[in-house]
């Protein structure tokens, strides 16, 4: 579910809306609504479909009652409702399916309560009273964790920087359960979406062409979801279409990511350092991806020098990728002597795993579980998180945000974001 409801946020909106499928429920809801001082005309016919259509063009109420009796796929329909329902709305669903598993799945997805039809007036009053109490209750403060921005830069074309970027983003989101944004700034030839078997969409192109549109809602709609905790923004712009930008759109995107995610991974082509150096201003950790060759050693030295001068706040990790098991062009020892620092992570070359990842449309880290490549990816994740945490301790991290400040910031563990609930209903357990 893209955006679970989070009780406790208010706003100037109607106290109650209802969408029901049968006359009996319609009449009962109107009567109870009138008792509570709510407008009876806010009770509508039409069920889930009408609810989604109506809330797509109007503000969500504080409490929403929706009848799912005509729904063929309740969980999918709840996802559709979440797309148009504002955070803070407390949702009560009703239906004819007497299945405790469905009840638990609905609660996990953000529903406050599920009433089995036919229900009585007292049962309805109790559910609405509890919904009011949940809505009015103060929301627990979300724990603060500084946003971490990572940049991945390849010293040469073909060193596999994009493979490292997608693997890092996948590991942060799947292994560490941190809501993560992946930004592929190669607008013409980027492969991040392709590596995960996704269509890139027009989100990044639209952002470059219309920077003034970039806000939280734009981010929510423009990004392509790889999972509940990973979203990608990329492009596949026509090669006959130059992208003219001063970089302001990219900077705005990163600012919105800080509000909406815990981590951002930026796949940054090296030419971007020359064209848009300001993109590195708030990067916490930079991965310089290289190979053990003479040309790569030269460009590693140049990029490390540039980072030291232009992005002194960033923690730099050197990652030697696709290292062949035989003798490389330059030994690790000679390479480290040349760049005057150690190589932090060595990722071995494995043609079988690389080919399998490409065929399956999965990241290298996901495909390489249990192999030497997988162990190297795990080591990479530890190194990155260690660098990010030491950066936080040094007070360098900027723009700390509370998780849950925007729609995308709420993806993740839905149960942890919902209020404590009473036990499953006896009627459903029977």
From TrEMBL:
The modification 4-aspartylphosphate is found at residue 67. Keywords: ATP-binding, Nucleotide-binding, Phosphoprotein. Residues 18-132 form the Response regulatory domain. PANTHER family: SEPTUM SITE-DETERMINING PROTEIN MIND HOMOLOG, CHLOROPLASTIC, SEPTUM SITE-DETERMINING PROTEIN MIND HOMOLOG, CHLOROPLASTIC-RELATED. This is Response regulatory domain-containing protein. It comes from Sphingomonas bisphenolicum. The lineage of its organism: Bacteria, Pseudomonadati, Pseudomonadota, Alphaproteobacteria, Sphingomonadales.
